[in-house]
Amino acid sequence: MSDRADLLFELGTEELPPTALKRLSSALEEGFLTGLSEAQLAHGEVIAYATPRRLALLVRDLEQRQPDRDVERRGPAVKAAFDAEGRPTKAAEGFARSCGTTVDQLERLETDKGEWLVFRSHQPGQPAAELLPAIAERALERLPIPKRMRWGDSEAQFVRPVHWLVFLHGDAVVECTLLDTPAGRVTRGHRFHHPEGITLYDPADYAAILENVGKVIAYFPDRRSRIRAQVEATAKKLGGVADIDEALLDEVTALNEWPVPVAGSFDADFLEVPHEALVSTMKGNQKYFPVFDAEGRLLNHFITIANIESREPEMVRAGNERVIRPRLADARFFWEQDGKKRLEDHIDSLRDVVFEKRLGSMYEKSERVAALAARIAEQIGGDVEKARRAGMLSRCDLMTEMVYEFPDMQGIMGRYQALRDGEDPELAHALDEFYMPRFSGDRLPETRTGIAVALAERLDTLVGIFGIGMKPTGDKDPYALRRAALGALRILREHSLSLNVLELLDQAREQLGDRLDDNGVVETVWQFMRDRLRRLYADAGVSADIFEAVITVAPPDLADIEQRIRAVQAFLKLPEAEALIAANKRIGNILKKAGENIPRTVDPERFEETAEQVLLDEIKTVEGGLLLRTDDYIKQLETLARLREPTDRFFDEVMVMAEDPLVRNNRLALLRRARELFLQVADIGRLQAGGGESA
After folding, report:
1. Do 299 and 427 lie in a common domain?
2. 543, 488 contact by CB (below 8 A)
3. 554 lies in a domain?
4. Tell me, what CATH number does 482's domain have?
5. Cα(369)–Cα(367) distance, rounded to whole angstroms?
6. Cβ distance 3 to 125 under 8 Å?
7. What letter does residue 661 receive in the DSSP assignment?
8. 455: closest CA among 379, 536, 537?
9. Is 526 exposed, middle or buried (0-12, 13-18, 19+ CB in 10 A)?
10. Percent of the chain at pLDDT exceeding 90
11. The predicted structure's pLDDT at residue 111
């Protein structure tokens, strides 16, 4: 018999939760592989299978037996193992018993730390068949199942009732019982197409037999790819393009073992309703794929995936059309009902909705956001009054029936309703942009009004929630403050907005007044945002030392920070960079040790070395050049590069810490003046020579 053979493990169940299927499959694979590794059972490729009614693993070329191994266990030190008369102590006897031997059979080990008792033994490897049941049991126990269930009179617990278990190593069944189910070699096919048992003899044949005989595509990625291709082809026949949401595609794949596309349609009159609401109910409630035309307009078609090849496909199509019709009718009803009021009619009702009990109602928050948005709009060239009105209307769509029924329509409904009310188009779009970015990587607001209200909302939330002591801790962030900070930073950075963040945070604090407990909340929030900004730059490939070199001297203006970072990146490519970085580190250390009492002015009369005068002359030349390039940090650092040679000469020829305190302080003042020139751009002493890439 070969010393290796393929292993197949399959657990057959009632339909598993579709949104958890991939997670369960990955966890089973991870748990099984951990067990094999701990048992020292070598193997080849591992393939995980997952369908609504099964979790399975195929492990190629798994060893039939563990390798033999020599075991060495170290016991107590010899001096603790025997008493003064040389008799074994309890420590020695206890160690010997745990090893299944006697003290006189133990060996001794000499080390540089002393002599120890050791037990050495040769352990033959166990057959895999004896180890696999426990490995499988532990893997099943570790699956991420929040709430397990029982079924029938069984004491077993799992996410769904278990109906069969296949456990083969080579052509032999791994004898065991898991979850009250005895292992065998009989699997089952599709619930309707092939409900009968299918006997397996070779694990390698598993996927092919299930597909060809059982009408089950067991491999999740294959099934997913097939569904995508089916949906795309069906949409093309309908004259459109399918909206294939990746999360929805995963869920539909987890609902089907034998996918068959079905195209359906609905009344074109429903297209008068905002298409986002129709798409929401098609995807969320029915798991349908909507179809759009080449211009991005929703068509009155949808595609669903049936888990069966029906003899009467028209009946399947008609059934799906019948089910979707009342849901679309509900969306139209809410749209029509909401049209009987204007958005501004909902403003007063926001007084009765609490944002946070210490921070007031949604109405009060809207007032604060409106005022802050107006200030931001003024600074970025937007329309102040438009931003103020957008801030007051920003939450009104939360009071509509459409958003109550379809929560993901918030903002979107505000835009549609504002346009229906005859509001300015930019203001209407700002009500949608108010929520952008909704998630990581989402698009940003584009209009000046949208930018203003989106920023104002996030800054007010950050200051308010931090100010009442509800900072994020660990994985707890109920007010999504991390997302709010990242969203604000992305808006500021990617739109190159020259705004003083500290001033805006301070206005947000002033508006909240005595509602806040934390007097230092502005600096706390700015530090929180800086930590997020550091991550954003790290993701963009900017090393930590470059970020720190800039952020320690830069004003709280992201456009300015961005320019400085680009300048430092360019500076690092200059031939003078390495020497100047080293010089700045040296100057920084010298000044730090010298303390605070360094003179502000340099007296040339106290120079004793030519190198001192040369450095001062070059500093004056550089200062003149910097005045001509106040907004060009790259040119400033190129100009500062001229200080390399005189600085190197200074350190070669001058003893900074001279015995004469007047000479010493004058030299310190000269170094201070040189260092302050660099600090106008960045603290380059923090840089790593040759840096510039992601840390």
Report:
1. no
2. no
3. no
4. 1.10.3210
5. 5
6. no
7. H
8. 379
9. middle
10. 81
11. 85
Of the listed ranges 72-76, 350-354, 467-471, 524-528, the least confidently predicted one is 72-76
CB-based burial label for 608 (10 Å; 0-12, 13-18, 19+): middle
According to DSSP, the residues that pair with 11 across neighbouring strands are: 55, 165
d(CA 450, CA 468): 27
Give me the numbers of helices (H) and strands (E) for the chain, helices first please: 25, 18
- The domain tally of the chain equals 5
State how far the Cα of 621 lies from the Cα of 641, in Å rounded to an integer: 12
In this structure, the answer to whether residues 379 and 493 fall within a common structural domain is yes
**Radius of gyration in angstroms for the set of CA atoms belonging to the chain, rounded to a whole number:** 36
* Number of Cβ atoms within 10 Å of the Cβ of 236: 12
The pLDDT of residue 51:
98
Q: By CB neighbour count within 10 A (0-12 exposed, 13-18 middle, 19+ buried), where does 359 fall?
A: buried
Residue percentage of the chain with pLDDT more than 70: 98
Q: For strand 172-173 and strand 177-178, is the pairing parallel, antiparallel, or unpaired?
A: unpaired
Q: How far apart are CA 456 and CA 580, in angstroms?
A: 42
Give pLDDT, residue 627.
Answer: 67
Q: pLDDT tens digits, residue range 485-513?
A: 999 999 999 999 999 999 999 999 999 99
DSSP strand pairing (197-199 vs 54-63): unpaired
Encoded tokens for 430: 């700002």
Answer whether 45's CB lies under 8 Å from 62's CB: no
Q: Indicate if the pLDDT at residue 569 is higher than 80.
A: yes
Domain around 664: 562-686
The encoded tokens of residue 480 equal 């999504």
Q: Is residue 692 scored above 50 in pLDDT?
A: no
pLDDT in tens, 517-544: 877 999 999 999 999 999 999 999 999 9
Instruction: Give the CA diameter of the chain.
Output: 104
CA-CA distance, 75 to 116, in Å (whole number)?
6
pLDDT top residue among 117 and 263:
263
Task: Assess whether 508 and 525 both reside in one domain.
Answer: yes
Does residue 479 share a domain with residue 604? no
308/305 Cα distance (integer angstroms)? 9
The chain-wide mean pLDDT, for the chain, equals 93
Q: Output the six-digit token pair for 86.
A: 């040389």
Q: Is 262 helix (H, G, I), strand (E, B) or coil?
A: strand
Q: Is 561 helix (H, G, I), strand (E, B) or coil?
A: helix
Asked whether the predicted pLDDT for residue 21 surpasses 70, the reply is yes
pLDDT at 668: 93
- The predicted pLDDT at position 690 comes to 58
User: Do residues 403 and 504 share a domain?
Assistant: yes
- CA separation for the pair 516, 493 (Å, rounded): 28
How far is residue 225's CA from residue 158's CA, in Å, rounded to a whole number? 29
Q: Which residues contact 669 (CB under 8 A, 6 or more apart)?
A: 598, 599, 600, 601, 602, 603
Residue 436: which residues within 8 A CB-CB, separation 6 or more? 411, 442, 443, 444, 445, 450, 454, 487
Mean pLDDT within 18-30: 96
